[in-house]
Amino acid sequence: xxxxxxxxxxxxxxxxxxxxxxxxxxxxxxxxxxxxxxxxxxxxxxxxxxxxxxxxxxxxxxxxxxxxxxxxxxxxxxxxxxxxxxxxxxxxxxxxxxxxxxxxxxxxxxxxxxxxxxxxxxxxxxxxxxxxxxxxxxxxxxxxxxxxxxxxxxxxxxxxxxxxxxxxxxxxxxxxxxxxxxxxxxxxxxxxxxxxxxxxxxxxxxxxxxxxxxxxxxxxxxxxxxxxxxxxxxxxxxxxxxxxxxxxxxxxxxxxxxxxxxxxxxxxxxxxxxxxxxxxxxxxxxxxxxxxxxxxxxxxxxxxxxxxxxxxxxxxxxxxxxxxxxxxxxxxxxxxxxxxxxxxxxxxxxxxxxxxxxxxxxxxxxxxxxxxxxxxxxxxxxxxxxxxxxxxxxxxxxxxxxxxxxxxxxxxxxxxxxxxxxxxxxxxxxxxxxxxxxxxxxxxxxxxxxxxxxxxxxxxxxxxxxxxxxxxxxxxxxxxxxxxxxxxxxxxxxxxxxxxxxxxxxxxxxxxxxxxxxxxxxxxxxxxxxxxxxxxxxxxxxxxxxxxxxxxxxxxxxxxxxxxxxxxxxxxxxxxxxxxxxxxxxxxxxxxxxxxxxxxxxxxxxxxxxxxxxxxxxxxxxxxxxxxxxxxxxxxxxxxxxxxxxxxxxxxxxxxxxxxxxxxxxxxxxxxxxxxxxxxxxxxxxxxxxxxxxxxxxxxxxxxxxxxxxxxxxxxxxxxxxxxxxxxxxxxxxxxxxxxxxxxxxxxxxxxxxxxxxxxxxxxxxxxxxxxxxxxxxxxxxxxxxxxxxxxxxxxxxxxxxxxxxxxxxxxxxxxxxxxxxxxxxxxxxxxxxxxxxxxxxxxxxxxxxxxxxxxxxxxxxxxxxxxxxxxxxxxxxxxxxxxxxxxxxxxxxxxxxxxxxxxxxxxxxxxxxxxxxxxxxxxxxxxxxxxxxxxxxxxxxxxxxxxxxxxxxxxxxxxxxxxxxxxxxxxxxxxxxxxxxxxxxxxxxxxxxxxxxxxxxxxxxxxxxxxxxxxxxxxxxxxxxxxxxxxxxxxxxxxxxxxxxxxxxxxxxxxxxxxxxxxxxxxxxxxxxxxxxxxxxxxxxxxxxxxxxxxxxxxxxxxxxxxxxxxxxxxxxxxxxxxxxxxxxxxxxxxxxxxxxxxxxxxxxxxxxxxxxxxxxxxxxxxxxxxxxxxxxxxxxxxxxxxxxxxxxxxxxxxxxxxxxxxxxxxxxxxxxxxxxxxxxxxxxxxxxxxxxxxxxxxxxxxxxxxxxxxxxxxxxxxxxxxxxxxxxxxxxxxxxxxxxxxxxxxxxxxxxxxxxxxxxxxxxxxxxxxxxxxxxxxxxxxxxxxxxxxxxxxxxxxxxxxxxxxxxxxxxxxxxxxxxxxxxxxxxxxxxxxxxxxxxxxxxxxxxxxxxxxxxxxxxxxxxxxxxxxxxxxxxxxxxxxxxxxxxxxxxxxxxxxxxxxxxx
Length: 1451
Hints:
Blueprint (H helix, E strand, L loop, with lengths): L8 E9 L11 E2 L5 E5 L2 E6 L4 E5 L6 E6 L5 E6 L6 E5 L5 E5 L7 E6 L5 E6 L6 E5 L4 E6 L6 E6 L6 E6 L2 E8 L2 E6 L11 E6 L4 E6 L4 E5 L2 E6 L7 E7 L2 E6 L3 E5 L5 E6 L12 E7 L2 E6 L4 E5 L7 E4 L7 E6 L5 E6 L3 E6 L4 E7 L4 E6 L5 E6 L3 E6 L5 E6 L5 E6 L5 E6 L4 E5 L5 E6 L6 E6 L5 E6 L4 E5 L4 E3 L2 H6 L26 E7 L4 E6 L4 E5 L10 E3 L6 E6 L5 E6 L5 E8 L11 H8 L2 E2 L12 H8 L11 H7 L1 H7 L11 E8 L11 E2 L5 E5 L2 E6 L4 E5 L6 E6 L5 E10 L2 E5 L5 E5 L4 E9 L5 E6 L6 E5 L4 E6 L6 E6 L6 E6 L2 E8 L2 E6 L8 E6 L5 E6 L3 E6 L2 E7 L5 E7 ...
Antiparallel strand pairs: 1-52, 2-3, 3-4, 4-5, 6-7, 7-8, 8-9, 10-11, 11-12, 12-13, 14-15, 15-16, 16-17, 18-19, 19-20, 20-21, 22-23, 23-24, 24-25, 26-27, 27-28, 28-29, 30-31, 31-32, 32-33, 34-35, 35-36, 36-37, 38-39, 39-40, 40-41, 42-43, 43-44, 44-45, 46-47, 47-48, 48-49, 49-53, 50-51, 51-52, ...
């Protein structure tokens, strides 16, 4: 079988020909090191002209379109296009990323500018609002953002002399901005009479609020403040594209091809007309200028860069050139020399020297060029044109040999035969024409087998065959030179090809992804010598494959640089280089081909090289050599944690059910019970799908999680305390380095992370808004200030938080595969690692982003755990095969076999490590993993006498390990928490059921014990007294869903999932009898009261069987239910059965025969039931919530005194109702602890405890029942009911009115609301109770006042000044009048004005920066901030709603 790994070779970008001059301006600068920085395609280029060397910044993944240079001239900011575009700030010296800024803009980033001290960066987006954003770029934080303008913005600049002032300009506008707080406030420039309103293309700021700007007509507009002061007419012949300010003055460049220099007062110094110079040409247009000292850099529309020395201004140096605008498709390499030929839609053909990295010849043709080929002797160059003709030139002097036009459609491919005799020309007319070279290109043959345009062709080495690919994905073979098609498949296999550039055929199957029928690969070229293949595709990726590459989905190395589609790729004649050309970016890239180094050298690569190579990513497709996945890990990757409905959806669902609720609101609802419950103890620990989630706290208690609860367990007193802030499954837990705070992450649509205090159980911070579906890993930094988290979304997003402030610092897509662990480097909090399915990645923070590199390990392994070692670059990770990998930086140094099966958990000590694996062994290691110092096997034999339960099996899979207080703490997959003493004995502290739903629950008739049975195939007996432990356990053949004690407590009946049931001895759990009469799950089982003579067994087959316990015979069957049975209860006499079914029926059957009875509602209430666990019927109608179509009430239990009904439902709520719960929507007390559905609830025999079982969360929770007089000290557990009924004391009418006010307004395209009103005289009067008498008794005004304004002159528009405002907003606002200045003034608001009213002079002064109604006002009481006021307005852009802080002395 062919090798399916990626090839052992590299490409390294060596040179980029071109400069992006089209659609971009101001993108060319000198750096501090006198190098030139610019961009082309998706690459930032730093070009050293003295040494003629280029360095590349490859941090973008799409076209770069904007660039700004930091004032210190070392750092560069570049912005790109794309759906989620980002800004990179990078170092022009090391070409490494310093910061990434993202998540604000869409479409692209049009302009960038640094402020004068380089602390802030402003960016303008390409979205419809042209959003402006000011960044603290080092931290990646947004300081302010605002819509920029409705039309395109072309340039933006900071005022270098006034802090926090900006100027932006663009289509028909210029705006002057000021930053105040986090608001950007614009004032539009006033053109007035001085100049025409027109498009401004560029600007520069000067002293004293003067701004110079270049306009579309070639004038320079000079602004003072926001007013146009004067214009410099005709500075350029047409549009001024670029303006650059430096110490000496200003440089401008325009479409007329001139560069002008001006002094600091904008008096002209000199003009340089580039069109008139030697290198100039008609139509040259300047897009960018940079003036430094006596050098001027000029970038042109046609991708050239000139350098002009001022005193020799008529001799500019042409230091870089590329193709002009238009697609670039044609590429050919010279057969014997290091030359490449390219031809483009700009109609030029160019020859490049690959050694000198320079353009050596250029020739303009009549037509756009689409393909090129060089004859085998290197003498002729053939060019295929867009109009169907082709031209042959002599390479030596670019003179024409022949021009042939036989076709009307474009020629897309042409090739000379190896013997040089023929030229094959493939056109878009689906045919290939063969021409004789020696016969002056006479047509000698034609190939007409294709049904679509020709895309690729190759000759055989003997020049007797030609293969073609066409647009339909067909591969055909022709005899040469006649052009006869060969249909025999065998003949195909015998041909030897002289080149391979086809994208179809068995040798290149592997370049196509699996299961794809797309044709996005534009070009292929095989290097037969090194057996490697290069491909170029529509996504801008250059890939290297092995050749031949037979199986689909082969591995590759990929390289970014070109942004959009790459049209062609070719090896140079001696295979030293690969040349690729970009279609839309019309750039030429030259890549050096490098054989793979030995891994030893890999540690000593120059930083420049590692950077470029780190962008060669291995492919994502699976390798053939990945070992089989471990069954446990396999199970875990299948878990999705997605819910149909999340608790977060409840408010919305309730909103939808409002109507139902209103209908029933007239009836009086039953009040909630007076007694309450409090969570007391939980049996369970989540080990089956979580790892490393168990720690010692500062005080020696143990913290872990189960269901939706964070548990703090005191092992001396055997008590638990709970953190109940979560409302769904907790999936991960991390402890602060000081061992006092805990972070837990949960499942949820917008899932949250809580940081809480393990001593006080108080929430310190809640982080949400960045993870979907759930948070699967968290970790604190060593200083405890940062928190890293990983989400469960498809990209497994990684977020770095400043958790105290609750703000996101950086975020990035983590990996397509599941991530199991995240760790922050303890020595350098900027670095972190993530590990998971088939990968380990090393990340470092850069501003608002993270940059990640995969660890190189040869073959891909799944990592289950990872820790940092004793130095900042050492990382140790545990694999799914039982190895420990030791990493330095990102290179694998060695692996050590540690466990049989996966290593699930590891913990770093001061001097060494401890690991735990699926093999149930805990191992202690020295600090280099050389020696295993000690192993502990978790076995029943070594269980210490003080254990709180029993081990289910020897060597359970270990999922969590932690050390402290002289012990090793171990969590197992089976839900046990064990403490291993260093000397050997093991104490079991807590345990619960294993993976699988827990449904069966029964409490003992007179002892404080209960029994549970679960899908994990165990039956367990638990002690509910303070010793809280598991008393007995028995493994069953099948899982079970129900159980019940006999009335004397000696026997226990258990219903299993295969339709059988057992009766066992309640003490020893040994079988007494068993039956198997049904096929489906046994859903409920009940002994009759009294002597327990009968046993009723309900199944999902819709029958209830009644057995006589003494004679062990079936004596009756209850038939007639339409669906599966869910609940059953006996009456006190043991004669009547009540049954609930899945079709929501309430049925009655007579025992023991099972005859169906119809009992009228009035009679059912009189029946005395021996137990109540049903959920249907009039006496419990009120337990069904408003949203009952979404959630089921799964279980209920009535206390023995008949007063309190406890229920469990699918939302994980435990609720208490006052019994009977008549009428709809009874009131209740509600408790959250279980995560998903509560499957069963039971009171103990004396009502002292309530026991609840959570289905998938596997936990068994014990709640203490607190009677009426007992005040619930911790309200946080209990929530009152869903709906406040109107008759609960209700609202005062004013309060109701204000409560229902809605300030939302229909949005316009702009963010000013529509001011719709009806003029007073047109209003229909509605007499209302408290209507004020009309003030004016005057007649209504006539509808239109007609005035004669024929002879009036138009007056100048004057400014209006606000003098007096009548009114105060009191109708819907409160606490909005305050004294100021020791009572001399009062401040209040009305409409959109803040008013300061001086009591002595009765004069008003105003704050008028708001754009809409002010709704609230407060003043700062602190002595440090006298007279500071905050007002909040109503607005659509919520981000702007509260930004006005003003000083009242000067409103």
